[in-house]
Amino acid sequence: MYFKKKAKPDIGLSDEELVLSLQQVMDADLFGLLYDRYTARVYQKCIGMVRDQDIAKDLTHDIFLKAFVNLKKFDHRSKFGTWLYRITYNYCLDHLRKGQRQRTSQVDEGMGLELEEEDRYEEELLSMRSDELPTVLEQLDPGDRAVLLMKYQDELSIKEMMEILELGESAVKMRIMRSRERALVKYRNLYPDLS
Q: Would the pTM of this model clear 0.85, i.e. be above it?
């Protein structure tokens, strides 16, 4: 790979047009445009998952390096932003898992729950006070925290989460439900007088 230096990139290009151009010839200015468009979002996702500004900055830098190196592999089946979000999610999760000393048990993705019980969990989760929520999120497994942030902070649809997590619809719904359950258990343990 090599960089071609241009005088001034065309700022009017869409993400897909920029990526197509970059897949043909790597251009530092064009990649800089993608970086400028997405750096704040990637950083916010990182800080939401790792809760440390310095680590989030390092991870953001690493994620863009990874995206740059793998840009030729981007197949345009999804939007560039979705692809970058998937890299961000997986990279942060890998970072958190490496730092985690205790192993959490896997939950059976195939178990079901009644819809009204699921709604009750969501209602209870959403009723947490905003000053308590960061503490509860901090106590969760990184995977659970990431799923809840995708659903409630980033307001991603189930379809978008399916693409990012590379899972089927029922598995994504199950992960959301299980993450909500575990968040509520943590909440009740941390704040028994409020729940």
A: no
